[in-house]
C-alpha cells in the first residue's frame, strides 16, 4: 500500500507536488536524455481514469533513491532482470495499458522471453502463431472471464502474442487449492512476520467476514500461489531476456510475495541463467488526492497513473456471500 498524507485541499497538494518534482511549464525533465532511444519505443499509453488525472505525478516513474526515471530507463531496468514483475490493481484499465506498453517495448527490442500470468493456471499456455485471433488465445489459456475480465487483459496478452513469445499461466490451479489448505509446510515457507502480514491481509481483503479459524488455510493458499508463480515463471527464463509476470501488487512485493519463493527453485533454472536470479518489481499505483511521491520498500520502482473511482468492495463481497448462503 502507498503511504498517504491526507490533506483537505487537493489543489494545495498538487502545488506542493509541482515544487517537489521540479516541474516546469515545458516537457518533463527526462525528455532531454536518451531522446533517440526513446523514439524507437511504442507510443506511451493514454490514461482513461478520472481520479487525479491532472496531477503532475501522472505518468511519472520513481525508483529507489527518490529519483524519477524515463519510460526508456524503466524498460532497460526490466530487461536486465530474469523476472520482471508488474504489480497491478486488477480492475484498473490504465495499469493494463501500461503493462501492454512494457510488453510491446520489450518484444520490439527482442528482449522478451515470455509473458507469465497470475490470471491463468499453471499448465495452460499459448505458443503461437503470432497472428492468432483473441478467441483462439483465450481458448488455449482456458481463460476465466468471470474472475479476470478479458477486456482488461486483452491488450498485454495480445501484445505478447504479436511479439511471438509464449504466454503461460503460472498460478496454482483451482484443483490444487484444497490440498494446499491442508499442507502445514506452507506455514514455515516464509518468516513468521511475513506470514502474519499475509494473515492480516487475508482478513482485511475479505473485509473481516471470514471466521478467524479459516485464516491460516487461506494464507496457505496465498503462499502456495506465490510458490507456483515463482517456480513456473523461472521455468520460462532465457539468457539475455526477461520473463514479464502480470500479477497483483501484493504478490509483486519483494518483501511479502513471489520473491521470497525464488531461491527454492533456482536449482531448476534453465541453462545459461545466472544465479542468484535478478528480479525487478514495478508497482503500478493509481493516484488518490493523498498520494505522496514515495516508493514502498518492496518495489524497485513505481509508475503513477490516475486512480479509479472508489468502489465499496466490501459491500460487493457481502452481497456475494449472501447469495452463496453464507453469513
Derived from helix and strand composition plus strand pairing, the structural class reads alpha/beta
Computed Rg: 20 Å
CATH topology name, in short, is Rossmann fold
Q: Give the termini separation.
A: 29 Å
Mean pLDDT: 89
Which word captures the global form?
A: globular
* Unreliable stretches covering 5 or more consecutive residues: 1-33
Helix content: 25-40%
Pfam families: Cofac_haem_bdg
InterPro entries: Cofac_haem-bd_dom (IPR007314)
Domain Haem-binding uptake Tiki superfamily ChaN: 75-261
Keywords: Signal
Report on the structure:
The chain is of the alpha/beta class and 327 residues long. Helices cover 36% and strands 15% of the residues. It has 11 helices and 9 strands. A 9-stranded mixed beta sheet has the order 2-1-9-8-3-7-4-6-5. Strand 1 and strand 2 form a beta hairpin. Helix 8 packs across helix 9. The longest helix has 20 residues, at 215-234. The protein is globular and about 55 Å long. The two termini are 29 Å apart.
Structural features:
alpha/beta; 11 helices; signal; globular; 327 residues; Cofac_haem-bd_dom; 15% strand; Rossmann fold; nine-stranded mixed β-sheet
Amino acid at each position: 500500500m502507498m503511504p498517504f498524507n491526507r490533506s483537505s485541499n487537493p489543489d494545495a497538494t498538487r502545488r506542493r507536488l509541482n515544487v517537489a518534482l521540479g516541474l516546469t511549464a515545458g516537457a518533463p525533465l527526462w525528455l532531454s536524455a536518451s531522446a533517440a532511444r526513446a523514439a524507437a519505443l511504442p507510443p506511451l499509453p493514454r490514461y482513461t481514469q478520472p481520479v487525479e488525472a491532472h496531477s503532475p505525478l501522472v505518468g511519472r516513474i520513481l525508483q529507489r533513491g527518490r529519483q524519477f526515471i524515463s519510460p526508456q530507463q524503466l524498460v532497460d531496468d526490466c530487461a536486465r532482470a530474469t523476472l520482471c514483475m508488474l504489480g497491478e490493481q486488477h480492475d484498473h484499465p490504465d495499469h493494463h495499458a501500461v503493462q501492454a506498453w512494457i510488453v510491446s517495448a520489450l518484444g520490439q527490442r527482442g528482449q522478451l522471453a515470455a509473458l507469465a500470468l497470475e490470471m491463468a493456471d499453471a499448465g495452460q499456455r499459448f505458443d503461437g502463431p503470432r497472428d492468432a485471433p483473441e478467441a483462439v488465445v483465450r481458448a488455449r489459456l482456458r481463460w476465466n472471464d468471470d474472475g479476470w475480465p478479458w477486456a482488461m487483459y486483452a491488450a498485454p496478452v495480445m501484445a505478447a502474442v504479436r511479439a511471438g513469445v509464449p504466454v503461460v499461466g503460472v498460478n496454482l490451479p483451482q484443483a490444487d487449492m484444497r490440498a494446499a489448505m491442508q499442507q502445514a509446510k506452507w506455514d514455515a515457507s516464509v518468516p513468521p512476520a511475513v506470514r502474519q502480514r499475509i494473515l492480516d491481509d487475508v482478513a482485511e481483503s475479505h473485509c473481516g467476514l471470514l471466521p478467524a479459524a479459516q485464516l491460516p488455510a487461506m494464507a496457505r493458499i496465498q503462499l502456495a500461489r506465490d510458490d507456483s508463480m515463482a517456480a513456473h515463471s523461472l521455468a520460462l527464463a532465457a539468457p539475455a531476456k526477461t520473463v514479464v509476470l502480470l500479477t497483483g501488487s501484493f504478490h509483486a512485493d519483494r518483501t511479502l510475495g513471489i520473491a521470497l519463493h525464488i531461491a527454492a527453485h533456482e536449482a531448476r533454472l534453465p541453462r545459461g541463467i545466472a544465479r542468484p536470479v535478478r528480479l525487478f518489481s514495478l508497482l503500478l499505483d493509481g493516484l488518490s488526492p493523498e498520494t505522496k511521491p514515495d516508493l514502498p520498500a518492496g518495489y524497485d520502482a513505481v509508475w503513477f497513473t490516475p486512480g479509479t473511482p472508489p468502489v465499496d468492495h466490501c459491500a460487493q463481497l457481502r452481497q456475494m456471500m449472501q447469495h452463496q448462503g453464507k453469513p
